[in-house]
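tokens incoming
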């Protein structure tokens, strides 16, 4: 039995396990999910440190919860921090450098989470050989890892992201005030970094196909105002397609407060796992439209918990959004089913049980 398992069998009477959470950038859904899950673990059994290459918008939030944040820009700084940290577990959430540095430092347990299907690169294959356990967000992510031979069945668990579900007491009136839109308007939301993989251009083209009373609001988790967006979705593009009906909010840290103001959440990404924003939206009762790639179907069962469309198809996306806007009873039925689907699966306490088993080396094969 491993030293970590022995500590677990001691009933928490020994020193807590020191866990490092390694992220390239400390912002966005993966970073928030990583810390949310960590905070659900027994604080007497675990301490956590976030090691990040770039500081982000979540730093103050994490430190309010007592999570130390250490900046390590570049692979050499990362290796130095991990080597000096005397960590029991290194849990990486992006890239390969953290896993390799942990292996060189002799960290007893190395865990990695894939948030979307991995690529069969030489770097990934090398890092995989030094990884004790993998977590995969979404069944398609897990399936691809197995097909590529990056993980064996006993070293892999498919999970859902840990999301602290928002309080549904947040009002539509307040959300519309924050959005600057009237209560009677129909509003379609999009959430995430406004870069190519998320396809904000598909979102914009879909909004342009909808009637004049429909607004599209994109809350960008990584970028700034419309003037700083990529050329495909900059001011000129916005004006040509939807004019004032397309609103780019820039970076926001109040997404949970905005969600009740959306009539539909549209997910247009090509490479997402189970999107963090989709889980929050389902919890807030917002109907969902998403794509079939790669793990959209994990949260959206077509016609049951939302509607699915082909990636990169604005006409199909517009049709699906229009259907939900025109059929509010159907939209409510699907949103209730989506809430039921995510409520237990994404509870941080559920993932904390998995993490406890994985960190202590006693996780059964899945």
């Amino acid at each position: 039995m491993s030293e970590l398992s022995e500590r677990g069998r001691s009933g928490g009477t020994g020193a807590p396990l020191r866990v490092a959470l390694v992220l390239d950038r400390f912002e966005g859904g993966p970073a928030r999910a990583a810390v949310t899950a960590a905070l659900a673990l027994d604080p007497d059994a675990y301490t956590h440190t976030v090691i990040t290459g770039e500081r982000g918008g979540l730093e103050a939030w994490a430190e309010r919860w007592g999570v130390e944040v250490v900046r390590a820009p570049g692979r050499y700084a990362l290796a130095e921090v991990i080597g000096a940290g005397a960590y029991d577990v290194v849990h990486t959430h992006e890239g390969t450098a953290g896993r390799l540095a942990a292996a060189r430092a002799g960290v007893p347990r190395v865990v990695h989470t894939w948030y979307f299907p991995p690529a069969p690169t030489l770097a990934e294959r090398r890092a995989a050989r030094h990884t004790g356990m993998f977590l995969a967000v979404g069944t398609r992510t897990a399936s691809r890892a197995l097909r590529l031979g990056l993980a064996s069945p006993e070293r892999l668990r498919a999970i859902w992201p840990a999301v602290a579900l928002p309080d549904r007491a947040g009002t539509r009136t307040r959300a519309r005030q924050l959005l600057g839109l009237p209560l009677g308007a129909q509003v379609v939301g999009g959430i995430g970094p406004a870069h190519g993989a998320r396809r904000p251009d598909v979102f914009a083209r879909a909004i342009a196909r909808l009637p004049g009373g429909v607004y599209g609001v994109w809350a960008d988790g990584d970028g700034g105002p419309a003037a700083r967006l990529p050329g495909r979705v900059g001011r000129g593009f916005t004006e040509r397609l939807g004019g004032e009906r397309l609103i780019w909010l820039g970076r926001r840290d109040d997404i949970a407060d905005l969600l009740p103001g959306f009539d539909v959440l549209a997910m247009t990404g090509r490479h997402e796992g189970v999107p963090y924003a989709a889980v929050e939206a389902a919890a807030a009762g917002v109907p969902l439209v998403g794509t079939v790639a790669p793990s959209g179907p994990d949260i959206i069962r077509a016609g049951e918990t939302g509607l699915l469309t082909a990636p990169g198809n604005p006409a199909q996306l517009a049709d699906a959004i229009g259907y939900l806007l025109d059929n509010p009873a159907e939209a409510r039925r699907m949103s209730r089913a989506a809430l039921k689907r995510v409520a237990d699966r994404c509870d941080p306490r559920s993932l904390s049980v998995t993490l406890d088993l994985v960190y202590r080396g006693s996780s059964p094969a899945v």
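note: The longest strand covers residues 17-25.
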